[in-house]
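JOB MANIFEST
job_type = single_chain_structure
chain_count = 1
residues = 174
[input]
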Amino acid sequence: ADLSDNLELQGEIYRLQQARLAAVEDRIQAELDSERHAHLVIELDALVREHPYRERLHALLMLSLYRSGRQAEALRAYERTRLTLAEDLGIDPSPELQDLQKKILEQDEALLPPAALSDEGKPPEVVRGFELRELIDRRGNASIWRAYQASAAREVTVTVIVPAEANAPAFVRG
């Protein structure tokens, strides 16, 4: 039976819908923090279309795009959000969303997933199949490591670069 027409249940239905949406946002945030960001873009794009005034969803979409190396698209997503809020509601994005846009413009390292750097600012112990054993040198946003590649059973030197830097056009062309 469809209970959505029952006026006595309208408040509870709304509350449960909001709780479900908050849980979805929390799950997506956890996936972003675990560096599983690329596949979230499609899901988030559908969610922001369904809930155009829910700024947390827009922030998650922007962050997912940025962490996927799609900075320009993340900034376009902000601009679409800003226009929607201005045209439909006559308001500006929240200070939090404006701050995220600024950090994306600046390629702020604070936008890296928590797993990308340890508490000491070091990369995780294993990066793309390479076991990092000894820090040899740091150069800007890169660090050079003596590492072990288990799949080839050999020691190698690995340069670890923060994702924002590695996806920058100047680096890719360089």
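[summary]
The radius of gyration is 20 Å.
The helical segments are 10-33, 40-50, 55-67, 71-89, 95-106, 163-166, 169-173.
exit_status = 0
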